[in-house]
Amino acid sequence: MNPTPQTAHAASRVLCVALNPAIDQTVEITHLRVGSVNRATRAQQDAGGKGVNVASCLADYGVPTAVVALLGAENPALFESLFASKGVVNRSIYLDGATRINIKLVEPAGQETTDINLPGPYLDSVQITGRIAQILDLIGELSGSLQWLVLSGSLPPGWPVDTYAILIHHARSLGVRTLLDTSGAPFGEALKAGPDIVKPNRDELAAHLGRPLHDSVDTLSAAHDLLAAHAGLGKVVVSMGSEGAILISRDAAVLAQPLKVAASSSVGAGDAMVAGLIAAELQALPLAETAQLATAFAAGKLSRLGPHLPVPSEVQALARQVVISALG
């Protein structure tokens, strides 16, 4: 028997879509030696996947959030426990089989993470069409209070490349704004549907535009090109790792310097930044303050294993430390 999802609360302001969730099995190793026996210093399992991470971080900040994840009915307990503990409304779709497992080998000293991602449940084309219809219905059901739809991560194998575009079109028709964080062909298709915000990293943006982006000057130019090419797009946010992040809107552009924090794991830092962008939009913050809050979310996540943030007051204190530079 499939588990029964929670009933949605009418006050959910954000719906996070997690089509490709995973159980993140994080293993800390002093130094990874390929082909040898490695002794772990610690290990933990967390409900993960980009959309799940975003929902978890938003909930930590006090934002009323719902999530629709495709969960294997054989092993949903970690996800259900996370959602229940944080007050995330669980509208997940339960599939036959098990949710995939992602193994993350973390070397803290070098701040390096090696990922081994396993496959998840298989759906045929008829089943996929049915699941997309369920998500469209859910967006309509929640649209009375819903302000943002967050589409994060890769599509599962076999899903149509325009899946995110379909969801964006539907959300726009209902007056719900959208943030897109994906890559490759799904990113290109979804851009045509007019998301409000996109958050590629520099490599993903370079791949989409078909040209190398060597530095922040190239990246700023590329972000402007993306904004100019898509009339419905309101903001482009490009994360650049240790070089920070560039945020541009129709009338401003800023560079946010990263904060230096003791990092437990880099896993999910980009997802935390997405959550910070949504939190800032809900507060109608100007671009510079949006950049500060999004960077603080990412920094707060770096200090923790799993999809968790410090308490909101600590995140806000981090935000005040973020250095912002105006760009031409």
Automatic annotation (TrEMBL):
PANTHER family: 1-PHOSPHOFRUCTOKINASE, 1-PHOSPHOFRUCTOKINASE-RELATED. One of its GO terms (molecular function) is 1-phosphofructokinase activity. Residues 20-312 form the Carbohydrate kinase PfkB domain. It holds the Pfam family PfkB. Keywords: ATP-binding, Kinase, Nucleotide-binding, Transferase. It catalyses: beta-D-fructose 1-phosphate + ATP = beta-D-fructose 1,6-bisphosphate + ADP + H(+). Catalyzes the ATP-dependent phosphorylation of fructose-l-phosphate to fructose-l,6-bisphosphate. This is Phosphofructokinase.
